[in-house]
Amino acid sequence: MVARHAGGEAKASPLSPAEREELRVRLVSLRARAEAAVTRTQGELKGEDAQLFRDLGPTGDWAVAEAEFERDMAGAAQARDVLALVKAAEQRMHSGDYGSCEDCGAAIGYARLSASPAAIRCVACQGARERPGRGSLSR
Ligand SMILES: [Zn+2]
User: Fold this and answer.
1) Ion ligand 1 neighbours, Cβ < 5 Å
2) pTM of the model
């Protein structure tokens, strides 16, 4: 029998059906907004905003991004990126992969997905992909 360690690392648990449904709804609304942004403007985004959406990815701060998104829907190119991420997440939801890390297969966890509904990697794997010491990551 395997000895279990008391209070080891907190492992993210798989999504419950309710959590999955909630995230699915949020993805749908994100997609709707991204699609609206894509159709509304076909122009290029200004550097600052472009950077925001480029950094958004699965690790970005979606709360901030969503606020920016509301405020400035001018970024068709970046909105397209967001749209692609959201669509990929929805596809993963259909295929049953949603909520599992693309790299290691571990559960990504509701807390992380709640902050980043389109996250495809667990914190550890995402961190490993990002350059360590990239300066001041904290906001
Ligand atoms: Zn992982």
Assistant:
1) 101, 103-104, 106, 122, 125
2) 0.62
